[in-house]
Design brief:
Elements (H helix, E strand, L loop, with lengths): L7 H10 L13 H23 L4 H36 L3 H14 L1
Helix pairs in contact: 2-3, 3-4
Amino acid sequence: MNSSEQTDTQMHEQMHESGIEHTHTHTHTETKAVLNRMSKIIGHMESIKTMVENGRDCSEVLIQLAAVKSAIGGVSRVILKDHIDHCIIDAVKENDTESIEELKKAIDKFL
């Protein structure tokens, strides 16, 4: 199984193994789309790295970096929407204020 085929359970376990803790478990509907987008971003970054190694024009590199920045923003929006649609709605139903506070902190760091 490659990384784009990880189950939500496997990703959840990896988070805990990495020391990332949270109070809820959840299912995301956009996991495959997020992983596909991230793979494209990684490929794009590798291409930009090659551009730099080959001495390509700085303007061209900056344009490509802007495209990656936009792609990261796009995948971030997908993750945020999916989190709200699943985790936060569940947290509100369960009166889980800690999860809501965690989201606020994450948004502060993201913005």
